[in-house]
Amino acid sequence: MSFNRSDLKKTANMTILSIQNISKSFGSIQALEKISFDVDEGEIVVLLGPSGCGKSTLLAVISGLEIPDHGEVRWNGISLATTPPHLREFGLMFQDFALFPHMKVYENVAFGLKMAHNNPEAIDHRVNEMLAVVGLPDFSKRDINTLSGGEQQRIALARALAPRPRLLMLDEPLGSLDRNLRERLVVDLRIILHQMNQTAIYVTHDQEEAFAIADRIILMNSGRIEQIDTPQEIYNKPASIFVARFLEMTNLFPAVITNQDGKQQAITDLGNFSVISKMDGKVNLLIRPDMAKMDDKGPLRIKGIFTGLSFRGSRQRIILEVNHIPLIFELPSFITLPNPGSEITISIDPHSAIQIFPEY
Amino acid sequence: MIEKRHRTITAVLLWLAPICFLLLFYFYPLGSILKLSLARSQQGLFSPFLQALNSPISWRVLGFTLWQAVLSTILTLILGLPGAYLFAHYNFHGKSLLQALTGIPFLMPTLVVAAAFNALLGPNGWLNIGLMQAFKLTSPPVQFANTFTAILVAHVFYNTTIILRMVGDFWSHLDPRLGQAARMLGANRWQAIRWVTLPLLAPAITAAALLVFIFDFTSFGVILILGGPRFATLEVEIYYQTISLFNLPLAAVLSILQLACTLGLTILYTRLTRHLSIPLSLKSRVATQRRLATHRSKLMAGVIIVILLVLLILPLTGLAVRSVTRLEPNRGEQSVTSPGFTLDFYRALEINNNDSIFFAPPTKAIAVSLGYALATTILALVLGFPAALALSQEAASPISHGLDSILMLPLGTSAVTLGLGFIVALDKPPLDIRSSWILVPLAHTLVAFPFVVRNLTPALRSIRPRMRQAAAVLGASPGNVLRYIDIPLMGRSLLAASIFAFTISLGEFGATSLIARPEYPTVPIAIYRLISRPGELNYGQALALSTILMLVAGAGMLIIDKMRIGDIGEF
After folding, report:
1. pLDDT value at B278 more than 70
2. Which residues make Cβ contacts (< 8 Å) with residue B40, sequence separation at least 6?
3. What is the pLDDT of residues A82-100, one digit of tens each?
4. Which residues are CB-neighbours of B75 under 8 A, at least 6 positions away?
5. Distance between CA atoms of B143 and B447, rounded to whole angstroms?
6. Which residue in A has a C-alpha nearest to residue B201's C-alpha?
7. N or C: more exposed end of chain B, with fewer CB within 10 A?
8. With a CB-CB cutoff of 8 Å, which residues 110-139 of chain A face chain B?
9. Residues 136 to 155 of A: which have CB under 8 A from any B CB?
């Protein structure tokens, strides 16, 4: 299933949440450093990054569970600095769900509505509605401790959505589930959130999950933002070496770019070849692994020894050693490869497959 | 089938020693004294019961016992729960020291506690001396000794640490996200506590409160010494009826009444502690504790710490300071009291200035106490370990549940009755050990043994079967599994259990006072002898000896605290 992202967005781009210059440290550890971004109404923003990059701390700051050292969180232009968590009308779905073990499914989902002093009929109606939305309509009397991981995840989502939060935050909501379930649920989740026009911030360390659910991705690294873009832009144009590495693009090596007769030439350990670059001198050069062809007719050909293969289903990943530098390329699985140790040639288009980063 | 039979045999073997011990030294003496007591009644076996039930005295005593226990328990909860919250949620400098300090009162002998409160609030206590000096009064303005308040304060002092430890420990492992989830769903701070935290803590709070209630219900020394003659709990009434009035039938009926109440409560208690293992994902303390960062939390912590220090530590400090302070003028000097430092009370401990035939120098009393405590520790461990092992292996069987409750029974039994039972039952064949030194450690073991089991069982349960299997697969024989897996993993719990047994034995007074041979007094008995004699010197000596006992018990508590592992359940 695929979605046209712009169709699903009902409202025009209206900034509703504004994170301004947030810093937070725990002792000597700087967890967040001058974080700023905006979230539009109805948008799903994903905070993506390795564990320990500050994603969960940022969620806690937005929730009001942690107080930032500097900066502020604004909702519709109004600062939330003095608003305690329970009055922010935000929802937070925790990593391991934090369902109340002493309450049944129904009471868990009803909790937020009860705190908002809804009348019993309204609570009853909304709980059943939410259980239907998450696809577990007959679960109200079930004991929390008898639910499977996927069921718990759905109940946690129903509980977070029931009080109609202005903003829903999800902290690695699928982290503890197995891969198949995760892939299915992430699609369901996107449909549910967009149907309700729910503004959401979704935290994950899994790039595939992020690509599948995000309208926009904020890629974080040790408390700082590396890149903010749509999934397509992030994948096609990683803004830094960190982003490229995080997306498993590992063919990175130093190069020197020189001008010869108006043409730019990259001098590398692999050999020299012509490139188009805005920079001169010492740079880092990325060869994307996913745009290679197994032929010797392309504009830039790389010859090397085929030393290793890992099969990934529809794609296969090969290791090609050029001048003792291992390069990784992805090829379609239908291509038959020679025996390891043989010499092969692949070709790439330098315009799309080569990207140049400053040398720091 | 073979497997099952094998397990039954193992369970029987493990239970053999503990059950034999309880039969011989608990049920047999208890049965003997009750039988003897009731046989003395001239109007048949049931008439003492009818008499007791018709007498307004027994109803009044029962009423007072329940009333003071309920009130003491509520006050203990009010003081203990905020402290438990502080210990569970925050890390701060000196926390472990404070935790150890708050544990000391629990291990203090009742006599020392009474002496401590007297040193602080009694007629010759610091408060009254200070007020008299400040306002030039001739009589002490604050009346504390022999009041109901004194009883309540002493009970709170004694038992707050149970709440701090049992509830605080459970709370510190509770996932903080559950509370945060409630906050995010619109609950304010109090609503989150009301609807989420309290229900989850309820089993721990109830279990702790019940234990406190049992201790308050069977309270003896506190009532006798701080409450004075106007107040009598069942336990004190049993003592009076036995020692002063020699009305054994009534004493027996009251004992049975008390035993029935505590049996009901202990059964309730063991049921509730089992619910402590409700399916909760418990977090390590690292994940649940934070530093005192905001002004609000610092203020709250400050207030709680000051209250705990004033209530729990000040009396003990007052006691120690008073034991090195001279208040009476020296002979021949003017009668102006000017407090001064003195070690006279400690020096006088060695002198038999009352020409008592049973005089024992404190070094001897200390040696006797230490010897008894050592014997108690060994006995309690030898008996407690197999019982804990059986309980941890057969956690779900109804037999385990029943035996678990029975193990707690000695805690709720009148020490006076038990002491008398020892005297009556164990001085004739088949068991003639009346004059043997072993009698005292046996009585102490009855009280220490439940604590040992309480400490070891959770530690043994926390050893996952997988670890034993892994060791076995790697070639370890059952003996080696015990040696290299079980004992190292529970080493700290073993040490904690030993120290509990040791300090309980050091402080036991009720039963010891009846069965100890007069020429071999323990420290609490030596204190009692000194405190019941008039005069500043005797009083000072009692305080000096109490201080020594307090320091020993305090050192024990500090060691226990250093040895704590992240186990759920403390008692």
Report:
1. no
2. B248, B249
3. 988 888 889 888 888 888 8
4. B152, B155, B156
5. 34
6. A102
7. N
8. 111-112, 115-116
9. 145
Nearest to B187 among A102, A115, A160 (CB): A115
CATH number listed for the domain at residues B12-326+337-562: 1.10.3720.10
Which runs of E-coded beta strand occur in B363-432? 427-428, 431-432
Global ipTM: 0.71
The pair of three-digit structure tokens given for residue A313, joined into one six-digit string: 């289903």
Which chain B residues are closer than 8 Å to A96 by Cβ?
A: 177, 281
Question: What 3-state DSSP class applies to A224?
Answer: strand
Of the candidates A96, A99, A115, the beta carbon closest to that of B186 is on A115
Q: Which of residues 159-198 of A touch B (CB under 8 A)?
A: 159-160, 163
If you average pLDDT over each of A147-156, B454-463, B523-532, B550-559, which comes out highest? A147-156
CATH 3.40.50.300 fits A5-246, yes or no: yes
Contact B156, B315 (CB under 8 A): no
Mutation for A interface: B185, B194, B282, B289, most A CBs within 10 A:
B185
Helical packing angle, B110-121 and B314-322, nearest 10° = 80
**CA terminus-to-terminus distance, chain A:** 40
Confidence of residue B16 (pLDDT cuts 50, 70, 90): confident
Q: What gap in Å lies between CA B502 and CA B508, rounded to an integer?
A: 10
Q: Which residues lie below 8 Å from residue A190, measured CB to CB, with a gap of 6+?
A: A3, A44, A212, A213
Residues B258 and B238 sit within 8 Å (Cβ to Cβ): yes
**Under an 8 A CB cutoff, do B184 and A92 touch?**
yes
Measure in Å the smallest separation between the Cα of A107 and chain B Cα atoms.
Answer: 11
Order of strands, sheet of A90-93, starting from the edge strand that comes earlier in the sequence: A90-93, A167-171, A200-204, A44-48, A216-221, A224-229
Structure confidence by residue, pLDDT tens digits, B108-160: 777 778 778 877 887 777 888 888 888 887 777 777 778 888 899 999 998 89
The CATH class of the A252-358 domain is mainly beta
Amino acid at A234: I
**What are B144's strand-pairing partners?**
none
CA distance B294 to chain A (A): 10
Q: Where do the domains of chain A lie?
A: 5-246, 252-358
Domain ranges of chain B: 12-326+337-562
User: Are A100 and B196 an interchain contact pair (Cβ–Cβ within 8 Å)?
Assistant: yes
Tokens 């001008």 -> residue: A259
